[in-house]
Amino acid sequence: MERFDDYIINFLRHTAGVSESVLSWVYPLTAMFAIGLISYMCTALFRYIVMPAVQKLTERTKATWDDYLFNRRVMKAFRRIIPPVIWYALLPFAFSAGSEVLPVLLKACNIYIVVVSLFFISEFLHSLYEISSEHQKLRNRPLKGVYQMFNLLAVVVGFILVVSIIVDKSAGAVLAGLGASAAIVMLIFKDSILGLVAGVQLTANDMLRPGDWITMNKYGANGYVREVSLTTVKVQNFDKTITTIPPYLLVSDSFQNWRGMREAGGRRLKLSVNVDANTVHFCSPEELCRYEHKGYIAKGRYDAAVKPVANTQVYRDFMMDFMSRHPDVNKDLMVMARMLQPTPEGLPLELYCFSVFTDWKPFEQFQGQVLDYAIVMASEFGLRIFQRPAGSDIFGKSQPVVS
Predict the structure, then answer these.
(1) Contacts by 218-223 with C-beta closer than 8 Å and gap 24+?
(2) Sequence spans of domains, the chain
(3) At CA 50, angle to CA 45 and CA 53, rounded to 5?
(4) How is residue 310 annotated by DSSP?
(5) 233: buried, middle or exposed (CB in 10 Å: 19+, 13-18, 0-12)?
(6) DSSP class of residue 13?
(7) Could you report the per-residue pLDDT of 108-144, keeping only the tens digit for each?
(8) By the 8 A CB rule, do 232 and 209 touch?
(9) Of 280, 253, 252, 270, whose CA–CA distance to 384 is shortest?
């Protein structure tokens, strides 16, 4: 670089004919112009030669991660770092050692390097997030909050570095000075800090993923998770509204995640049919023969029964067989029909099984079919479904409406 300085000085003295009286201010201007020209040429070289070459190289590879890491946004952010680095390296040769302007320009270059480096880190983290979103194992992880955490940490470090450059102190001294105002900082960034800790817990424990169906009635959330960020979790409810919940509430409070239902491959059906207790009786041999003739029970199923068989038992076994043979019932999970504690509304018969449908609409159709069949078939076994008496029950039949 000393030869570079001598070349400019000799050019100004002998070629341009600059006198010694004006050389003291003409040389810095000429040197700064030369530094600007060098930085422009290096930036143009990187833009028109290096960037196209890197993009063509990444297009030829079979891997996709390099297409994200070396995309146009990342390369453009890296290109912004080139000019201030060149200016910081060459400015000392444009001014004398005792110049008052040089420290100010060097501080400005340092600050500019920190700022453009933060933009580069942000774009790099965004590219990493895009790679994880395309990855088969990572795309269902709530990693957006993690990347936002690293981005926030980079901004905090960048802020400390900028302050240290301005006050001409070390970063450690600035950090120690900020420790006195830690309470104010924690108050300002309370939600971000809590969201940071909660995001780490949600990710580490695999409690929540984008696309999960969660229910949190306390906050009116019942739908699919669309986004998990550092400060918010967006849930799109089934009525198409959006519920926003802070991540730390998902850790400190309880919520229901229906992901296990989808992974198990079955959605639970659990409903009760109230049977009128006055219609419960022991079946006669003729009734059992009639049930066998209609195919409701297997032939000779109750021949070995020591005690009389009630019609509720036959009806219960019939519904159990019906659910066990139903094509829409998951046979690998529990199938059960049981009697519950009698209530003033009748004797509840609970039907319990798991449908192969996990989505709402087909499951409701399956549930309606099972319930309809249970109500209709109850009369075949001499049972009556209990319901509270209405006016038509009291008068025997409905009265015509007089207009």
Answers:
(1) 218/253, 219/243, 219/245, 219/249, 221/245, 221/255
(2) 2-203, 206-261, 264-381
(3) 140
(4) B
(5) buried
(6) I
(7) 898 999 999 999 988 888 888 777 777 666 665 666 6
(8) no
(9) 280
The whole-angstrom separation of Cα 180 and Cα 193 is: 18
Distance CA 207, CA 251 (A): 9
DSSP state for residue 397 in the 8-state scheme? S
Residues of the chain under the 70 pLDDT cut: 1-28, 96-98, 135-145, 175-186, 188-189, 390-403
Tokens of 53: 């070459």
Comparing CA positions, the residue from 270, 265, 261, 264 lying closest to residue 337 is 270
CA 130, CA 76: separation in Å to the nearest integer? Answer: 17
Vertex 211 angle, CA 208 and 213, to 5°: 75
Q: What is the pTM of this model?
A: 0.57
CB 313 within 8 A of CB 281: no
What whole-number distance in Å separates Cα of residue 31 and Cα of residue 38? 10
**What's domain 206-261's architecture?**
Roll (2.30)
- Cβ neighbours of residue 391 under 8 Å, at least 6 residues apart? 398, 399
How many angstroms from the chain centroid is the CA of residue 63?
Answer: 25
Spatial CB neighbours of 310, under 8 Å, sequence gap ≥ 6: 280, 281, 282, 283
Are the C-beta atoms of residues 8 and 30 closer than 8 Å to each other? yes
266 is written with which tokens? 């079955």
The partner residues of 235 in beta bridges, in order of sequence, read: 225, 243
CATH for the stretch 264-381: 3.30.70.100
Cβ-based neighbour number of residue 400 at 10 Å: 6
